[in-house]
Amino acid sequence: MATPHNAAAKGDIAKTVLMPGDPLRAKFIAEHFLENAVCYNTVRGMYGYTGTYHGVPVSVQGSGMGMPSIGIYSYELFHEYDVDRILRIGTAGGVADHIHLRDVVLGQAACTDSNYAAQYHLAGTYAPIASFALLEQAYQTAGRLGIPVHVGNLLSTDVFYNEPSPLPQWAKMGVLATEMESAALYMNAAAAGKEALCIVTVSDCPLRGESTTAEERQTSFTDMMRIALETACA
Ligand SMILES: O=P(O)(O)O[C@H]1O[C@H](CO)[C@@H](O)[C@H]1O
Ligand SMILES: O=c1cc[nH]c(=O)[nH]1
């Protein structure tokens, strides 16, 4: 049955879903990587497609920006559409000194400044982490494809324009890159007993004033797409 945000019927969505924040990145992946892709959702322009990759059913669904947005879409995928695993494929800002433009980072865990975990009423601080099985598979896959990756901590922040920048302090704690969704996805997966992994490409390095173009962010960060698709089908 459709939800307020997703027109798909049960069964329209594969067990494994790739989730870029940008719905146009979802369209790009469907058009360039999936075989026989069918669009199941255009509600709010948040495109969702199901097709196959090497014969294995895979869906790709935009998440929108920020934790409330991916919180809605991933909750519905896990709970209404019986999805087992979600691989976020996002862009991120490089934080650590050794992280450069276009580097790929596998998010082993995600720190956050968000209050998302308050819904779970825990008597402490929750540590959102990736599925180890997906992380290991993605790491092995990247090696096989000859794509260098970093593995480590992300920062999922609620605030894109934050002044003064909190990033130097996060860098001191070993955070590799900053984005806006992974912590919520990891929490939704944990709460649902499902699996998630976030793979990001560094689109800019805010502390160094370096950035890529919007077009590049939309269409040409294909290394992380290949890692995610091959992991989905392993
Ligand atoms: O490229 P996506 O997946 O949207 O990810 C990053 O880009 C957006 C900010 O520009 C935020 O959603 C952030 O997490
Ligand atoms: O959330 C994001 C995404 C890209 N670059 C950033 O600095 N932050």
TrEMBL record:
Site (Important for catalytic activity): 217
Pfam families xrefs: PNP_UDP_1
Entry's Gene Ontology cellular component terms: cytosol
Any one GO molecular function term: uridine phosphorylase activity
Protein keywords: Glycosyltransferase, Transferase
PROSITE patterns: PNP_UDP_1
Residues covered by the Nucleoside phosphorylase domain: 16-231
Family per similarity comment: Belongs to the PNP/UDP phosphorylase family.
PANTHER family on file: FI09636P-RELATED, URIDINE PHOSPHORYLASE
Annotated organism of origin: Ruminococcus callidus ATCC 27760
GO terms classed as biological process: purine nucleoside metabolic process; uridine catabolic process
The enzyme's E.C. designation: 2.4.2.1
Reactions listed under catalytic activity: uridine + phosphate = alpha-D-ribose 1-phosphate + uracil; a purine D-ribonucleoside + phosphate = a purine nucleobase + alpha-D-ribose 1-phosphate; a purine 2'-deoxy-D-ribonucleoside + phosphate = a purine nucleobase + 2-deoxy-alpha-D-ribose 1-phosphate
Assembly, per entry: Homohexamer; trimer of homodimers.
Binding site for phosphate: 21, 25, 44, 88-91
InterPro entries: DeoD-type, Nucleoside_phosphorylase_CS, Nucleoside_phosphorylase_d, Nucleoside_phosphorylase_sf
Descriptive protein name: Purine nucleoside phosphorylase DeoD-type
Catalytic residue list: 204 (proton donor)
Entry keyword annotation includes Glycosyltransferase: yes
Binding site residues for a purine D-ribonucleoside: 5, 179-181, 203-204
Protein's job: Catalyzes the reversible phosphorolytic breakdown of the N-glycosidic bond in the beta-(deoxy)ribonucleoside molecules, with the formation of the corresponding free purine bases and pentose-1-phosphate.
